[in-house]
């Protein structure tokens, strides 16, 4: 029985790893879908309005998925280029997860996804969408006695409380036909003269990114050109001497189409503002959280209570009184937000002083970030020690029991890594981020195929290099066990990093998406390798047994 102890332990361990990996991968995604802001059950109270509206009508146009390079292409979007030339422009920087629903929440609430309480991922079903619980640009406008409207994706019906809206048009059509209906409805809203703030959402560029080949396909520019025509149609209904229009997107797309991750191209978006009280010019980069406070300043409404950005006053021609009102509103709003966050984190807020001439947003957000970092560091230290011990123990055992056979085992593992990543990144053109995830089932099936192919090749290399078929069956099985365990260890290193950095699942804050995705991808590989290891554990000694029977018979 003692002779088979390693075989028994391997079988039990691999079955346990496969089950645990499956449950852990599911728990990670479930926790991100279910993530709620620390303010979910106790919304931050809104402040008072800043004064009278600066513009008669304010219209924001979101061109879903529009990249900065496409927005700057005068052949694809000539009218947007015209608006840029006569208005203010900048590049927006956004954060992760870079999906539409989180970005829409950031743009309207002014807070990053871990505080906005909007969806952290694009929902896979309507039931997963939760109405915004936090103060947003629509509720702020309503609090100031203004009328609001939305024309665009039906998802907004699932996000924005109806009590904050006066006129709506929703469509599930993400193609040009849907954008035509959206644009027509927006023009009617403008011509009615009732709505002080109107948000328009055009979908077909994002549709081209997902379903028509992505930004490198000619259909992408064609969709952008049609969207440009609708921007012209909407803006033509305005009087830019009295009205203000803002055009921006929610995220970019990788070259093959897709978004959601930390890829540089999906985390920058175009921003153009033109019309009344706009100071033309090209400006320094801004943040996605700056859009909501800027809209609030134009509308004279309160800054959304959870906003972490600033009003872009450098782009606006305002009086000293208006600038002072914005400064005082920002100071009060940031102080309340900081104190609310400290309370949610269970710590006493420090005394924060805003030096003369300093933007209160930068000062208070730095203090808020310090609270967050201190808690993260406290939690990461014990997780990091635990992960380091798990990572170092196999290295000790490998060094302690090293022999020449390890050369072939590590050669086989190197082949696994090369083949898996060659198929993943080169042949399939995927990025190591959520941007390449079409669906959870597609990611699992694709990863499983890549891992099975790569591990089978690694097994063949070990089988040949170590001449396992010439060894006694039990010895051949033990070498296979060593190959599988060491492969699991090497593949599992990103899992340990994710564990140390983000914990087992998302809890009071969202995970850092780069390390989370690499860890998640490795967990899926571990599940497949453990399964393949079990299957090949039966084949390896059987191959050795049959080979020797045939050789001895001859």
Number of domains: 2
The geometry reads as elongated
Which consecutive residue ranges, at least 5 long each, have pLDDT under 50? none
Largest sheet descriptor: 9 strands, mixed
Q: Just give the CATH class of the largest domain.
A: Alpha Beta
Question: Which structural class matches the secondary elements?
Answer: alpha/beta
Give the helix/strand layout:
Layout: H1 5-33, E1 58-63, H2 68-71, H3 78-86, E2 88-93, H4 100-109, H5 113-116, H6 137-143, E3 148-153, H7 155-159, E4 167-171, H8 176-192, E5 197-202, H9 204-211, H10 218-235, E6 244-248, E7 268-275, E8 281-282, E9 286-287, H11 291-299, H12 320-345, H13 360-400, H14 405-427, H15 440-465, H16 473-491, H17 493-502, H18 513-553
Helix pairs in contact: 1-18, 8-10, 9-10, 12-13, 13-17, 14-15, 14-16, 15-18, 16-18, 17-18
Compact overview of the structure:
The protein has 554 residues and is α/β, with parallel strands linked by helices.
